[in-house]
């Protein structure tokens, strides 16, 4: 027992002597480093929300159908609103006026007893002429704005373009929100750059800035003539004219004055012009109503279409700003 205690007393100093030359290890705190910067998240969320809103807005209220119908309506009226067509319509209305005056004079003199349809037209000749002149006046007044609206390139496909941009922005925003990998973020940033560029350039390149405001004026100019009542009125006037001319052509006892002979000789051209214009009005009534309804959706001066180019520009600037925001860093 004593010997064991002696061994411990001897071994302890020796162990201390052996370890005395070994340096003691001390716990060292890890070096302090700066906080790792991370990308701002609000720009990515803005791109996502703006993209979804743009995609939904581009199809809201049937905008694709409206713009396609507006393009169809402009194409239908274009042949009737050329300078040549308007001059010819002027001549048609003047011929109707001279014919009406001649027939009315014969009716007043009692020389049309055997021509009831011609008498019917004589009684309505002033009204028929007034309707025709009002129609022509509305068409002439609308021509500058119709031309301006027709010069917008890609009007019929504008909603589809905005839909694609909205989807691209939404996808890019979602990638920037969720992904931390460099490659997907680079692709999302590149897509955002393209979308911002299109939004900033398109209103000018397409002519939307100069022509979109004309949509409201076209709607106002066409308002008196693009109604079912107007179509019925024009059809009634046309049928009354057809009855009188047909009766005269069948040899009814009507004096063949120079005015009457000139009108019956030109009747084929006059009737074709009137029937074609009346048909264009009748066929495009639904498209006109959709255009008017869509334009009235925003209670702003000029309506929805007048706002479109400026909305594109503002959104393009906002997207560009959000893109800059994604490049900046914030300390976490």
Summarize the entry for a quick read.
By secondary structure, the protein is mainly α. The chain is 76% helix and 2% strand.
Provide mean pLDDT, rounded.
84
Helical percentage: over 70%
| Overall form | rod-shaped
Point out poorly predicted stretches.
15-19, 33-37
Order of helices and strands: HEHHHHHHHHHHHHE
What's the story with the biggest beta sheet? Answer: 2 strands, antiparallel
Report how far the terminal alpha carbons are from each other: 66 Å
Question: What's the alpha carbon Rg, rounded to whole Å?
Answer: 40 Å
User: Which strand order does the major sheet show?
Assistant: 1-2
How much of the polypeptide forms β-strand, as a percent range?
Answer: under 5%
Helix count?
13
Which class best fits the helix and strand makeup? mainly alpha
- Give the tally of β-strands: 2
Walkthrough of the structure:
The chain is mainly α and 332 residues long. It contains 13 helices and two strands; from the N terminus they run H-E-H-H-H-H-H-H-H-H-H-H-H-H-E. It has helices spanning 2-19, 42-59, 63-77, 83-108, 116-150, 158-178, 182-205, 208-211, 214-222, 228-249, 258-283, 285-295, 304-327, and strands spanning 37-39, 329-331. Helix 2 (42-59) runs antiparallel to helix 6 (158-178), helix 6 (158-178) runs antiparallel to helix 7 (182-205) and helix 7 packs antiparallel against helix 13. The chain is rod-shaped, with a radius of gyration of 40 Å.
């Amino acid at each position: 027992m004593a010997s064991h205690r002696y061994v411990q007393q001897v071994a302890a100093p020796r162990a201390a002597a052996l370890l005395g030359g070994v340096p003691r290890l001390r716990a060292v705190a890890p070096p302090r480093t700066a906080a790792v910067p991370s990308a701002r998240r609000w720009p990515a969320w803005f791109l996502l929300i703006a993209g979804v809103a743009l995609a939904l807005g581009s199809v809201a209220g049937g905008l694709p159908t409206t713009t396609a119908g507006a393009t169809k309506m402009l194409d239908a009226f274009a042949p009737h609103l050329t300078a040549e067509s308007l001059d010819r319509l002027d001549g048609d209305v003047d011929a109707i006026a001279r014919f009406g005056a001649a027939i009315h004079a014969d009716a007043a003199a009692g020389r049309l007893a055997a021509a009831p349809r011609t008498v019917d037209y004589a009684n309505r000749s002033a009204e028929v002429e007034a309707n025709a002149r009002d129609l022509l006046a509305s068409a002439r007044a609308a021509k500058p704005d119709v031309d301006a609206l027709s010069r917008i390139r890609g009007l019929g496909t504008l909603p589809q373009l905005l839909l694609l941009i909205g989807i691209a922005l939404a996808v890019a925003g979602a990638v920037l929100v969720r992904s931390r990998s460099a490659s997907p973020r680079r692709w999302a940033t590149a897509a955002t750059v393209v979308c911002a560029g299109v939004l900033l350039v398109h209103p000018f390149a397409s002519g939307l800035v100069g022509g979109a405001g004309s949509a409201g004026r076209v709607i106002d100019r066409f308002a008196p003539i693009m109604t079912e009542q107007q179509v019925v009125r024009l059809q009634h006037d046309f049928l009354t004219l057809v009855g009188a001319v047909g009766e005269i052509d069948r040899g009814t006892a009507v004096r063949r004055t120079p005015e009457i002979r000139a009108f019956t000789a030109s009747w084929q051209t006059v009737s074709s012009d009137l029937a074609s214009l009346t048909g264009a009005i009748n066929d495009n009534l639904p498209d006109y109503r959709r255009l008017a309804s869509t334009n009235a959706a925003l209670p702003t001066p000029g309506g929805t279409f007048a706002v479109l180019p400026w909305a594109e520009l503002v959104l393009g600037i906002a997207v560009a700003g959000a893109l800059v925001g994604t490049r900046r860093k914030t300390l976490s």
